[in-house]
Amino acid sequence: GEDVEQSLFLSVREGDSSVINCTYTDSSSTYLYWYKQEPGAGLQLLTYIFSNMDMKQDQRLTVLLNKKDKHLSLRIADTQTGDSAIYFCAEILGGGGNKLTFGTGTQLKVEL
Amino acid sequence: DAMVIQNPRYQVTQFGKPVTLSCSQTLNHNVMYWYQQKSSQAPKLLFHYYDKDFNNEADTPDNFQSRRPNTSFCFLDIRSPGLGDAAMYLCATSRELAGGSNEQFFGPGTRLTVL
């Protein structure tokens, strides 16, 4: 099967860093994405990384990619209460096509 | 601002009564998608249009149909909604370019309740 796995919950204190992990399955994935979903809302694209990169930084967000282990992570620096949401990683399966396979989602709770 | 718009945001229908959800986009993207997201689950792709070409997922029930009359609009028709079809329905778009990142942009979703 094609399962993209994430831990279900993460709780951090405001101002700390958050690290959300994802294990994907398709070694031929070309792009991997991180989406944020606030309660009752659609998905907001946060960032993405091309498979020939190890790291991508975008303001408070750092994406790390370990292709050997098929492991993707999202680090949020200086986490704020507004970062509380569900975070989904997603991959486009190799072989072409447009199908995004989403991870199970990680609910991030930021406490004061 | 360029965006993906879904109407209505909340839809209530009765068991077995056909319902249509709509999506429009001002991004001029050539690909449009419909996802179903049930509570505490990841979005699940139902089908997508690549330009006018319809691509159905193998496990999408026949009860779900779609229409794309032009580039900007795409509709999701549920012919006979069951209680199990209650979910958030998300529309997304992307510009398919060879070698491009093809990121998908999502609308705010329509939450469907079936009574």
Attribute tags:
heterodimer; A: 112 residues; mainly beta; 6-stranded mixed β-sheet; B: 115 residues; 7-stranded mixed β-sheet
In short:
By secondary structure, chain A is mostly beta strands. Chain A has no helices and eleven strands.
Radius of gyration of chain A over all CA atoms, rounded: 13 Å
Unreliable spans of chain A: none
The N- to C-terminal Cα distance of chain B equals 36 Å
**Strand percent estimate of chain A:** over 45%
Shape, per Cα inertia axes of chain B: globular
Instruction: Give helix % range of chain A.
Output: under 10%
Largest sheet descriptor of chain B? 7 strands, mixed
Mean of residue pLDDT values of chain B: 92
Helix share bin of chain B: under 10%
The total count of helices of chain A amounts to 0
Large-scale geometry of chain A:
globular
Mean pLDDT of chain A: 90
The most extensive interface between chains reads: A-B, 20 and 27 residues
Q: Care to describe what's here?
A:
The complex is a heterodimer of chains A (112) and B (115). With 112 residues, chain A is mainly β. Chain A has strands at residues 5-6, 9-13, 18-23, 31-37, 43-50, 55-58, 61-66, 71-76, 85-92, 100-102, 106-111. In chain A, the strands form 2 sheets. In chain A, strands 2, 4, 5, 9, 10 and 11 form a 6-stranded mixed beta sheet that branches. A 5-stranded antiparallel beta sheet of chain A has the order 1-3-8-7-6, with no helix packed on it. The model of chain A has no long low-confidence stretch (mean pLDDT 90). Chain B has 115 residues and is mostly beta strands. Helix content of chain B is 0%, strand content 50%. Chain B has strands at residues 4-7, 10-13, 19-25, 31-37, 44-50, 53-56, 64-67, 73-78, 87-94, 105-106, 110-114. In chain B, strands 2, 4, 5, 6, 9, 10 and 11 form a 7-stranded mixed beta sheet that branches. A 4-stranded antiparallel beta sheet of chain B has the order 1-3-8-7, with no helix packed on it. In chain B, a hairpin with a 5-residue loop joins strand 7 (64-67) and strand 8. Chain B starts with a strand and ends with a strand. The model of chain B has no long low-confidence stretch (mean pLDDT 92). The A-B interface holds A 31, 33, 35, 40-45, 48, 50, 88, 92, 98-100, 102-105 and B 4, 6, 31, 33, 40-43, 45, 48, 50, 55, 57, 90, 92, 94, 96, 101-109, 111.
